[in-house]
Amino acid sequence: MGQWDAAYAALAPLIRDGCTDLSIGILYVQSLFALRRFTQASTFLDNLLPLHSDQLSLLREKGRIALAQERYEEALSCFQRARPVLQSDHDLADLAQAYVCCGDLDAGWELIEGRLKDSCSPALLAVGGHCCYVWERWDEAAQYFGEAVRLGARDLVLSVRLAHALRMSGQVQAAQRRYRDILDVQPDSISATLGLGLCFEQMSMHDRALMIYQSGPAWDCGDARILARAGVCAARTGEHRYGELYLREAIKRGQESVELLAHLAYTLEAQQRWQDAEQVYVQLCDRYPRHVAGHRGLAWLYGVGESTGLSDAEGLEAARRSLDLRSDAKGWELLSACEARAGNFEKARSIQERLEHHSSDQSTRSRHQKAARRLGRRQPLDEAHVGRALVA
């Protein structure tokens, strides 16, 4: 930055004296750009352009300023008019970024795709990485972002996206290192805190993830996304009261999803608050009727005798609906429990016998045998006979 300070100090008196030389004007604009004096640079260019209307290099500089100020359509227009002089990787990165920021990723990608393999431009590689990131081509995104960082890119957003791409491509250990590097620089980064926690969630280490969410400086920001993940992890680790607290607050702040509602119901079940859990499952069915979670939750509550508001017809309908959405052994087991609860013991027993016949392990066969014997005595099933699996 020091050289640009010196350049500006040397050029500013010439400009004040009315110098209109093109090369001096461009260097002056570039010094203003480097010093982030975008408005001053834009005003100067507006005065200089009429004197050199045929100079496309001025349009290129105007486009760069507009891009930096997030005036993307203006930037794209300037770059398109200056296209004949846009030859370097850096120039093409600017044009591609303008396309991308205006929503035309295909045009931006087509412009740079052939140069990415051999490019030494961090800007060009960053744009390529962004395109792949949006398209969820995680391996390529991680490759291009990583190369951009290796070549000197220091943008925090790029670093976060690199870490995300590494995590999504399964490179969890590398992603952890990147997230920790970001948190060393910005300890309250919500994106990095979430990303690091999700690394541990992917490894089913929910206790570690919960500790990261709760103990980092980002926790004090009260971000709803961190509360949501903390709630899920608390539910997964048996901290059900905290799980309920975090999940309710996250949902209240706009983070509602199948996952959060299902985990909220799960925490309520764990506290034996059956009526509250049932209300959440009803909400799940109303909001997300094509997802199995709400229907399966209601079927379980009814089947094991913990429902407080479902009729026999409603309990059976929940079980059948869950089977329509996901036909598996668990769904049939729930239907058996619901048939028994409604008094249809022969149907329920027949289902258990079929499940026993198709079971692949001894413990599961034994459970179905015990359930079938109980049903033969015309006794409904309870939690000891029907396993509860979290569906989210």
Folded structure, characterized:
It contains 22 helices and no strands. It has a domain at 296-392. The chain has 392 residues and is mainly alpha-helical. The chain starts with a helix and ends in a 16-residue tail after the last helix.
* Tally of helical runs: 22
Structural class: mainly alpha
Q: What proportion of the residues is helical, as a percent range?
A: over 70%
Proportion of residues in β-strands: under 5%
Low-confidence stretches: none
Descriptive key words:
mainly alpha, elongated, single chain, 392 residues, 22 helices
How is this structure best summarized?
This protein is mainly alpha-helical. It has helices at residues 2-16, 22-34, 38-48, 56-68, 72-81, 89-101, 105-116, 122-134, 138-150, 156-168, 172-185, 190-202, 206-215, 224-236, 240-255, 258-270, 274-287, 292-303, 312-325, 329-341, 345-358, 362-376.
Topology of helices and strands:
Elements: H1 2-16, H2 22-34, H3 38-48, H4 56-68, H5 72-81, H6 89-101, H7 105-116, H8 122-134, H9 138-150, H10 156-168, H11 172-185, H12 190-202, H13 206-215, H14 224-236, H15 240-255, H16 258-270, H17 274-287, H18 292-303, H19 312-325, H20 329-341, H21 345-358, H22 362-376
